[in-house]
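[User] Once you have settled down, look closely at the record that follows, and write a paragraph about the fold.
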Amino acid sequence: LSSSLFSPFSFIKNSKDKDANTLILLLLSTGILLWIFVCIHMHLQLSVTPTPLGKRLRSRFMTHHDAHPFTTNNYVNKHEPSKEGLSACLLVNDENPRLPEWIAYHYQILPLRSLIVAVDPASRSSPADILGRWNTTVNDMGFDILQIWEEGRYMPFGGDGACDASDPHTDCLKHHRKRQQHFVRACMAEFKRHKKTWVLLTDVDEYITFNTLHPDDDPPVPLDFAPPGAHTLSNWTWHVTGFVKDGVQVDETQIKGVISGLPKEGWHGKMNGQDKTTLPLVDGKDAIFYGAYGSVFTDKAGNMWFLRDDFAWRDALDMPLEDVPKNVPIIRNSWLRGGSLRGTVDGQPIEIRTNWRDPSDSQVRGLLMPTTPAEIETLHGGHMLKDAYGKQYYVVRKKMLWPPHLSAKQLTEIRRRLPTVADGTTVMDVLRREVRVLGEEYADETIGPCLCMPRLLYGSREEDRDDPGWKRLAPEGFDELDFVTLRYRWHSLPDNRVNKYQKAIIDVSRISEKNLRGEAVSIHSPVRYWCRDKQPPRYATSFFRVNHYLDSFEAYSYRNDARADKRNCKKCYDEKGTEAIKKMDDDIRPWLKAFVDSVGEEKARALLEGAGDFVHLS
């Protein structure tokens, strides 16, 4: 036989009908494309199929509502129109006593309309009954997505179960953090696939709220630029040196960074752009640990050092012309008009769309404090910048351009416009309003996609309910002792070390899928480039904050988690609590009345059933 008979295209070659040949080729091409699509679809389905272990555990996470059985197959409301709202990812471990309050609060204040809950394998209880209340025939509360995930859904190789705390070679805290970091990335990716926007990443003892301005109690507003007489340090780090002097432990704090703002002749042998380590600071390590950027610190010789906000200036890399990467266009003879930067690249005119601004123009428009310098010289004759679409350029300039970020004055004005939790305005409403105020394009680069929020620790100090000064804010028939947000009013000082690290709310619609794969660096900085890492946001310029509740010792020690040694330590609990009784406010406490007014008393009681009830778990 001729070899041509075995060729799949031999009949085409021998055919004299060109139209038939074209049709056959088209059909073959379509078949190949359909085969590729089916293969990709099967791969995606297999990649999210629960592990056999997950299937065996499925019965742990079921409720028994006849109308809407709630399982780890997950509830997606396809029968009712999707109601607008925000999303959240939550990892829980024996959190049922506080979960009803957390969901109801964020339903009211975000508004929360999509929620994914991952259950730690060490948990002795399931949240399924609590979540199931929100999607019954009677209580269809408009949730679009309401899911429970087992670790096989998001952990590599299906996860490895609960950590064995009795094994001295196992670090259960590291084990917990790894699970957390994989979960938040997988959860954000899931919401992105469902075309969601803002996703809240907190724990059950943390509540996002409006950072209401209290002029008498607020910490200082950070500076945008160094005041007269202070030198600027960028790319700075700090370190503490400890030693014993006359039998007393002494800690000295120093800062190392790149110096700028010097006269042309330099200062003490240092020139602009060189590394500089300060002498020991007068301020202690607590002051530098939090609330550092935008502040001025004095060393023991009386020199003043301003710490620049490197996150805001992360795209303005000041560098010599010879260090510019070869693939980056170099813009010369530049000038700004409106939202465009014009100049020349290799002698040819160019115009790029950009939200970078001239500092002197920002000063004229009232965006900066009156004392802020209008111009700052570059260290090396130019700096990197990005256009409105994210492409990098190097611009040759003696004066720095203003990167797209909000000034301290602008952020303070946003705080002045904040509502209260009592008036029904939501986090989503505030975000949309500020986009309108700033303009959509500028807001896209200055509000998110990662909004980092400072935490504020609330301690366990309680008020005497019989005291005439006590403000009862719970609706009739609800007990304030059942709700952590109503029970505790005393908190730590803002910008204080005890508040620890930030939490974030992420607009996943503006982050690519590849940046939501794998494992996050931490829950505090879930997407590295867009979230702050080294320094939490300053309290005075944050329009949202996260109230973090220490709660009662009963609640504090209730979980069966990786930090059991600390959570069962009453002394550790008391020491932490002493730092959280410095100030008092009622900012968050009116939420419950607003929620009851919104959904009705009967529904509110059903949804909040079991709140504050710490049942014994074996």
The first strand starts at residue 75 and ends at 76. The mean pLDDT is 83. The first helix runs from residue 10 to 14. The chain is about 25% helix and 20% strand.
